[in-house]
Design a protein that fits this description.
mainly beta; Lipoxygenase-1; 6-stranded antiparallel beta sheet; 6% helix
């Protein structure tokens, strides 16, 4: 049985010379790829198999060391970062939950899992693990 799930992701950036490149994947399939120069909303209706686990990934790609400028004291004075302004599944905004459940939501970079806030500053992926049926998952995992 298939379940249709609505995803809405709003991304923005903070950069001086090199806008961050974002990619969105669902279960390993690329749905979106774009340089983020202004606030951008991606919407998608996903057909998911009920009773299965799924993974949404928001990826910061191709950031180079020269995209970050550091002063003599080691303070970052210019950077290129990707921001997750909002993330909703079936019109339920889960953005505020991203840092609270590290098993379901994490920032994967440098070969490790980190707490996921709403900012991606190094190449890596914001991972959102969920299952279908989506409303059962929400009841069990979203506070």
């Amino acid at each position: 049985m298939l379940e249709t799930v609505k995803l809405n992701i709003t991304l923005s950036s903070n950069y001086q010379t090199h806008p961050p490149k974002a990619r969105i994947l669902l279960d390993g399939k690329e749905l979106f790829r774009q340089h983020i120069t202004e606030q951008t909303t991606f919407s998608h209706q996903a057909e998911l198999t009920a009773g299965t686990d799924h993974q949404l990934a928001i990826e910061l790609r191709h950031k180079l060391p020269e995209h970050t400028v550091i002063d003599e004291q080691g303070k970052i004075i210019q950077d290129s970062i990707l921001q997750i302004d909002s993330l909703s599944i079936e019109d339920v905004d889960i953005t505020g939950q991203l840092s609270t459940n590290q098993k379901q939501f994490y920032y994967e970079h440098s070969g490790e899992h980190h707490i996921l806030y709403n900012t991606l500053g190094v190449n890596g992926r914001a991972i959102i693990n969920f299952s279908s049926p989506i409303y059962v998952w929400m009841l069990e995992n979203i506070g």
